[in-house]
Amino acid sequence: MRTIIPFDIADPKTRLAPILTPDERCWFARMMLSDVIHHLREAGIEPEVLATEPVDCDPPVTVDDRSLDTAVNDVLARTNGPVAVVMADLALVTSTAFEQLFSPDAEVVLAPGRSGGTNALIARHPDFRVNYHGASIRDHRRNARELTNNVAEVDSFRLATDVDEPADLVEVLLHTSGDAATWLRQRGFELAATDSRVRVERDSNENSHGPETTPRRS
Amino acid sequence: MRTIIPFDIADPKTRLAPILTPDERCWFARMMLSDVIHHLREAGIEPEVLATEPVDCDPPVTVDDRSLDTAVNDVLARTNGPVAVVMADLALVTSTAFEQLFSPDAEVVLAPGRSGGTNALIARHPDFRVNYHGASIRDHRRNARELTNNVAEVDSFRLATDVDEPADLVEVLLHTSGDAATWLRQRGFELAATDSRVRVERDSNENSHGPETTPRRS
Question: Among B73, B151, B155, B210, which residue is least crowded by beta carbons within 10 Å?
Fold first, then answer.
């Protein structure tokens, strides 16, 4: 199945600015992309990257600098057959979670993200289009049901967890040992648990401008 | 399988204090408990409530005013056979998610919650004990693996989403129409989506001290 991973090159992950420099945010986004590509391949899927600028990675890259919705909907309109769209910041994802995404034989498959997002979807209906703004899962449910009764949702914590904010790094460090988690640990991030809350702390001895890690896997 | 739902009566859901009165927090906690009981029963499980004080609900109630860990571990120690422990604030849960929890035939089954919690677990190994403080999922993984190689984890957004903070009400309103969601809507809460974020707003015309809703289902 044609599977695209939208990837925004310029100033990614702005809500991580309190704890990562602009350069680090680019690297961290790149590590999460690497994890997503790796686990898609483990699930037997060869993805394409739909990027706002050229990016050096192993899968084929299409550059489209228009908005996310416009670029994705252009792919949906031009593709004869099913299309999967998977977000690039699913640092917790596993091949098993992707297998779960690809298993329902529905005309539209939706994987909700936290806070109303849509972290992955499959469009088998030729008229399905995306709208990622606001509570996109609500809009995608409505759009899908206007087209077909054959809509499925996938219930996965790993697909639901995109990484946007400093608190989300807790999930990365707790639940995965992929490129993104390894990169965070190498940059000095670790879990700090009190009785009631868990947060990330950064070891100030780590050099935040030291050599970057190359993604191991893509 | 013996399935217990710990339920703290006194001053529940303190992190919702910015938007719910103490009395409302008690009612909202009760509505979420009702949803959890309902969906366990739909999955063929008759639960028990393990409460800090007497509570009027349909399942059998055991009162134990000791700490959560002490009370749950006492049940684990006294029970000859498997025990499931399910948190009371899983407002998004469905019978399908519970069926997923109960399906692995492992000695310990863990369902991670967001931010390092453990929202549901099954202990078939007689020596497994809980410790819900801090990053409990990390401790429970370690405890389980010290006892057995037969440990399973359940990947479910609905089991992972406990409701603690005002932002969590977004998930309740987006993904369920159970007692908790109905109660919130009746109290004037609704989704407000901007382009980038989704939040809950409360209609100030709703009377925040009006008649309470009775749980429909337990």
Answer: B210
Query: Would you state the pLDDT for residue B198?
Result: 83
Q: Is residue B15 domain-resident?
A: yes
Chain B residue with the nearest C-alpha to that of A168: B115
What is the tally of structural domains in chain A? 1
Q: Is it the case that residue B149 has pLDDT exceeding 80?
A: yes
Residue B92: strand, helix, or coil: coil
**What's the whole-number mean pLDDT along residues A55-77?**
96
ipTM > 0.90, yes or no: yes
Residue in A126, A156, A123 with CA at minimum distance from that of residue A140: A123
- B169 is a domain residue: no
* A1-10, A109-118, A204-213, B169-178: range with lowest mean pLDDT: A204-213
Percent of chain B that is helix, strand, coil (3-state, to 5): 35, 20, 45
For residue A193, give the nearest of B94, B116, B158 by CB distance: B116
Residue in B closest to A158 by C-alpha: B155
Residue A158 has its nearest CB partner, among B96, B155, B170, at B155
Looking at the domain assignment, is residue A201 inside a domain? no
Strands A83-86 and A2-7: parallel
What CATH number should be reported for the domain holding residue B56? Answer: 3.90.550.10
Pairing of strands B48-51, B83-86: unpaired
**Residue A7's domain spans which residues?**
2-160
- Average pLDDT, integer, range A97-126: 97
B172 part of a folded domain: no
DSSP3 helix / strand / coil % (chain A, rounded to 5): 35, 20, 45
Model pTM score? 0.94
Q: Which residues touch A53 (CB under 8 Å, ≥6 apart)? A: A9, A10, A63, A65
Hey, of A114, A161, A194, which one would you mutate to test binding to chain B, going by the most B CBs within 10 A of its CB?
Answer: A114
The predicted pLDDT at position B217 comes to 59
Q: Give the pLDDT confidence of A148-166 residue by residue, as tens digits.
A: 999 999 999 999 999 999 9
